[in-house]
Amino acid sequence: MLKSTFTPIFWALVPKPMSPKLSPNVIINTFANSTSLVRQNVSLKQHQCITPSSAYIHLPFCRKRCHYCDFPIVALGSASAQIDDDPRVVNYIQWLCREISATQVELDAKAPLETVYFGGGTPSLVPPRLVSLVLEALKMKFGLSEDAEISMEMDPGTFNAKTMKEVMLLGVNRVSLGVQAFQEKLLKSCGRAHGVQEVHEAIDIVKLCGVENWSIDLIASLPHQTSDMWKESLRLTIEAEPTHVSVYDLQIEQGTKFGNLYTSGEFPLPSETQSADFYKMASRMLCDANYNHYEISSYGKSGYECKHNFTYWKNKPFYAFGLGSASYIGGLRFSRPKKVNDYMKFVENLENGLVNSSGDGQIHAKDTATDIVMLSLRTARGLDMKCFEESFGSSIVSSLIEAYIPYVESGHVVCLDEERRTMGIAELNNSLLHKTNTERKLAYIRLSDPEGFLLSNELISLAFGVIDNCMDCLQHLEVV
């Protein structure tokens, strides 16, 4: 499910340097010399006019709901791994294809899809013949590149070699295997429908069928999880040799079984210190095994980073279809209903021209700026300061740099020049004397791995505060 890719990392228990507070007068004086107004900036408008080339497809079916899950799903029951003629599945796929067909696309803006991601739920429960209908609907509506990355989330125990080969023939060339843990006790405690034996069988099937590009998903900080358990899961993952690994920290959501039973940081959940240690262990072991830590929760062998996820991290537009999914088109996010009956009504309204899911409302520069900062700082590449300046002006960049200086000194934030060489604190302080980022020589700001990533919530929130203050003061100047 798309939401999982935005799982926030936990607060780190490390000494936190005091961040400078910028007074309103300082910000106003700074903005008086701003090079351009945000909403008049050509660079930002061009970014918002990019035609989507990615599509997320939500297939909500599961055998049962996991104890931590708050996604919109339909529980089919565990009697069968796959139900070919279940009317709930067949009916949903029909409505999904209708939504795709009814989506408004400008002919001159139409572009073939470069990535498609089937998320859930458990997409591997949907029979390949029905997955084929969705892919055909996408091809008819948007076109599909010959070398498109087509990903599918698959859970152990929900597919066999025959199913795998059939979806591969449809064009699925990337598999995300929802393992979560390699301990029977942990799988049962979080309500997973599969066991450890099915995990190993699923890995064998993936390898037997020759899937070249595949990922293992793991969850840290589960109830009763120990350091030895986590180390074993990481070791067995590395031994399985996937080309990609996703590591998520358990989030306790209201309304879930875990939400009713547990409080984050309290037994039987690991403490915040233990959770931070889990994250550091994952970073160390996976990086030592030649996985590139290219995003807070994502590790990939060279050349096997998830192309679809880069759409999110670079804040590019994308289509989304299905129950509860959220698209991002024209600088606006649009969410579908989370209940099946409401979703069907939405599709009917879409077909009748009563709703526009492509985004035609008002775009707020502050929202766009915060999105870009949040998503960019989750990645190893970091925030492109030149592009950010082109879109939002040099003054907001100066304020952001000033706010981050204490964290540069503490090692949580890394500043890089155009050749991605680290800039020292003296060089950075000197760069603040320059008015434009070209003169500053600062090309990127990124969070260090793992300490900076562990502190990402605080560092990103600090950036949000800078953006809020700067944007509010800019509006004040315009009114005056």
Automatic annotation (TrEMBL):
Ranges for domain Radical SAM core: 47-290
GO CC, alphabetical: cytoplasm
InterPro entries referenced in this protein's UniProt entry, alphabetically: Coproporphyrinogen-III_oxidase, Elp3/MiaA/NifB-like_rSAM, HemW-like, rSAM, rSAM_horseshoe, rSAM_sf
Pfam family, any one: Radical_SAM
GO BP annotations, alphabetical order: porphyrin-containing compound biosynthetic process
Signal peptide span: none
GO MF terms, alphabetically ordered: 4 iron, 4 sulfur cluster binding; coproporphyrinogen oxidase activity
Top-level division of the source organism's lineage: Eukaryota
Function as written in the Swiss-Prot or TrEMBL entry: May be a heme chaperone, appears to bind heme. Homologous bacterial proteins do not have oxygen-independent coproporphyrinogen-III oxidase activity. Binds 1 [4Fe-4S] cluster. The cluster is coordinated with 3 cysteines and an exchangeable S-adenosyl-L-methionine.
Family assignment from sequence similarity: Belongs to the anaerobic coproporphyrinogen-III oxidase family. HemW subfamily.
Protein name: Radical S-adenosyl methionine domain-containing protein 1, mitochondrial
